[in-house]
Amino acid sequence: MLVDSPKSGWKATFVEATFADGFITTTPVQVLPEHYPTQAPPAIEPACKTLSDKDQH
């Protein structure tokens, strides 16, 4: 299965198959593109912000 990279942001996909005997299996999740940001996004208070190391302790 080929998945195109989005023009912006990321896209995650996986496939789940259910067989006649009830067995269910899934593929690993694939996230595209395979590069990640090098800096934190701007905060959108209060709903979304990047936690600093001091906020996580």
Describe this structure in words.
The protein is elongated, with a radius of gyration of 18 Å. 0% of the residues are buried. Helix content is 0%, strand content 21%. The protein has 57 residues and is mainly β. The strands form two sheets. Strands 1-4 form a two-stranded antiparallel sheet. A two-stranded antiparallel sheet has the order 2-3. The protein starts with 10 loop residues before the first strand and ends in a 25-residue tail after the last strand. It contains no helices and four strands. A hairpin with a 5-residue loop joins strand 2 and strand 3. The protein has one domain (1-57).
- Please report the number of helical segments: 0
Total domain modules: 1
Shape: elongated
Q: How do the helices and strands follow one another from N- to C-terminus?
A: EEEE
Going by helix content, strand content and strand pairing, the class is mainly beta
Task: Tell me the radius of gyration.
Answer: 18 Å
Nearest-integer average pLDDT: 83
Helix content: under 10%
